């Protein structure tokens, strides 16, 4: 029997484990650092509320990093705590992806059947390119909150086109417009990947999911991975497997490789970590910088989700959030989806309890600052706000993150000096080791990443299941 150890039961890990364990001759063990409930019925109610975002200081289900970056630390990962936004990137993003990795397997035409197989779209399920029989329920808000309706009306009055299906085909040209956000929600409950993929598979005798277990290091024999070291409370242990698929997310996947001796040689030596394989782990990453435009407004009527409408302006996305993040103030987020300046991830210590350092590179490029200024001006026009001068200091004072980090273990061919994995997610130079999460994205994508990470995991799992 083939054995695969999956590191992390986040969004990607749920998909990978469910797909591989569908073969009864394939034993799959998933090790998750956060809590794992024995059944979906035991998940705390607030985690099923798509309007509840448990990322505050009191939350016990997140990883925390400098710069207010948080990631989900529980079964389902960030997909269990985010806004349930489930939007596909435009075709141009996949054209760029496919070109960078020199493989047609990531072209829009190649991935479209995977997107369709993932979803049951309750609004467009029978339309071309969509699905009506997949595990992820997708729907759009039928009764938007007042703040969402006001935003949509303002977009229409400003001459922007309404896009009925934000997950429909968007060709190589620029297509601006606003529309209802596709959401992974069913009957008012968050439909995260644990619910849609992993829990339905838990009864399989060849699938084991263990929570509260942090994988601290990969075990290697020469250039082949043979297992992992882990910690559980005060306990320590090792587990061996035929192969390891790392699905720990853009931060923890990169950190795990570096702690295991796979990373930039100067960094490894500075941390006292024996060099197994010099590799550009953490040398490139990207995120979506977001400016929060706040304005006075009444207390919101309770909404089931945090975001119901969005305005797409090529490389900008405007988001009228339904909850108030500051008492008495509404917020319109202005996010730059394709920043020019990449970021960088490093470790300050070989100790797995010390958080990684992430320099996101925000606002370094004049082009990025100019695009965000343009987005803020559009927001001010829609809201009829007299903002005055929007200089660099103003941008920095209102800067935040969309929490969409990716690219720390970038995908590319073997002769690409920036690449850590090949187009199938296999780590260059290490046998038996694959990465299947947002850390492998080779280009910025112009939408939130939840649909993309499920797609990525599905494609890579399919390659490893045959």
Structure description:
With 466 residues, this protein is an alpha/beta fold. It has 2 domains: 2-133 and 191-284 and 345-355 and 405-465, FAD/NAD(P)-binding domain; 142-180 and 289-336 and 361-403, Cholesterol Oxidase, domain 2 (2-Layer Sandwich). Helix content is 23%, strand content 23%. It has helices at 11-20, 91-101, 108-118, 146-157, 193-198, 249-259, 265-271, 366-383, 392-397, 450-465, and strands at residues 2-7, 26-31, 62-65, 69-72, 119-121, 136-138, 177-180, 185-186, 189-190, 207-210, 214-221, 224-232, 235-240, 243-246, 262-263, 277-278, 289-296, 309-313, 316-320, 329-336, 344-346, 357-359, 399-401, 433-435. Helix 1 (11-20) links the parallel strand 1 and strand 2. The mean pLDDT is 96.
List keywords for this structure.
466 residues; alpha/beta; FAD/NAD(P)-binding domain; Cholesterol Oxidase, domain 2; 2 domains; 6-stranded antiparallel β-sheet; 5-stranded parallel β-sheet; 10 helices; 23% strand; FAD; FAD/NAD-bd_sf; flavin adenine dinucleotide binding
Write the layout of secondary structure elements.
Layout: E1 2-7, H1 11-20, E2 26-31, E3 62-65, E4 69-72, H2 91-101, H3 108-118, E5 119-121, E6 136-138, H4 146-157, E7 177-180, E8 185-186, E9 189-190, H5 193-198, E10 207-210, E11 214-221, E12 224-232, E13 235-240, E14 243-246, H6 249-259, E15 262-263, H7 265-271, E16 277-278, E17 289-296, E18 309-313, E19 316-320, E20 329-336, E21 344-346, E22 357-359, H8 366-383, H9 392-397, E23 399-401, E24 433-435, H10 450-465
Parallel strand pairs: 1-2, 1-14, 2-10, 5-6, 14-24, 15-16
Antiparallel strand pairs: 3-4, 7-18, 8-9, 11-12, 12-13, 17-20, 17-23, 18-19, 19-20, 21-22
Helix pairs in contact: 1-10, 3-10
Organism: Nocardia neocaledoniensis
Domain Glucose-methanol-choline oxidoreductase N-terminal: 72-95
Cofactor: FAD
């Amino acid at each position: 029997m083939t054995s695969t150890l999956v590191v992390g039961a986040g969004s990607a890990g749920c998909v990978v484990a469910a797909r591989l364990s569908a073969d009864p001759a394939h034993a799959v063990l998933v090790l998750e650092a956060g809590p794992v409930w024995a059944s979906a019925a035991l998940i705390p109610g607030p985690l099923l509320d798509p309007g509840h975002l448990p990322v505050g200081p009191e939350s016990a289900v997140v990883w925390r990093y400098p710069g207010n970056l948080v990631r989900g630390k529980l079964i389902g990962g960030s997909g269990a705590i985010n806004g349930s936004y489930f939007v596909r990137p435009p075709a141009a993003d996949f054209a760029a992806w496919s070109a960078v990795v020199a493989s047609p397997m990531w072209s829009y035409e190649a991935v479209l059947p995977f997107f369709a197989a993932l979803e049951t779209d309750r609004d467009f399920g029978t339309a071309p390119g969509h699905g009506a029989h997949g595990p992820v329920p997708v729907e759009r808000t039928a009764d938007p909150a007042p703040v969402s309706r006001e935003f949509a009306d303002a977009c229409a009055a400003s001459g922007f086109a309404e896009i009925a299906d934000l997950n429909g085909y968007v060709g190589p040209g620029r297509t601006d417009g606003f529309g209802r956000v596709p959401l992974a929600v069913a009957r008012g409950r968050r439909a995260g990947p644990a619910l849609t993929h992993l829990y339905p598979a838990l009864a399989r005798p060849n699938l084991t999911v263990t929570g509260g277990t942090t994988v601290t290091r990969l075990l290697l024999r020469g250039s082949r991975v043979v297992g992992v070291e882990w910690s559980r409370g005060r306990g320590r242990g090792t587990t061996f497997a035929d192969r390891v698929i790392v699905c720990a997310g853009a931060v923890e996947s990169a950190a795990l490789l570096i702690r295991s001796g796979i990373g930039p040689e100067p960094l490894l030596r500075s941390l006292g970590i024996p060099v197994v394989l010099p590799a550009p782990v953490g040398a490139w990453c990207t995120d979506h910088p977001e400016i929060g435009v706040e304005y006075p407004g009444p207390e919101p009527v309770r909404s089931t989700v945090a975001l119901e409408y969005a305005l797409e302006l090529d490389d900008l996305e405007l988001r009228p959030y339904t909850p108030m993040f500051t008492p008495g103030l509404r917020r319109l987020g202005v996010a730059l989806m394709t920043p020019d300046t990449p970021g960088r991830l490093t470790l300050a210590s070989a100790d797995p309890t010390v958080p990684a350092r992430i320099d996101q590179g925000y606002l370094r490029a004049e082009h990025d600052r100019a695009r965000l200024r343009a987005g803020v001006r559009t927001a001010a026009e829609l809201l009829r706000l007299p903002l005055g001068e929007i200089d660099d200091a103003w941008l920095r004072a209102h800067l935040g993150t969309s929490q969409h980090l990716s690219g720390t273990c970038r995908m590319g061919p073997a002769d690409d000096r920036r690449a850590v994995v090949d187009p199938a997610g296999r780590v260059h130079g290490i046998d038996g080791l694959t990465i299947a999460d947002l850390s492998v994205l080779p280009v910025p994508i112009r939408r939130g990443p939840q649909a993309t990470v499920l797609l990525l995991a599905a494609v890579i799992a399919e390659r490893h299941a045959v």
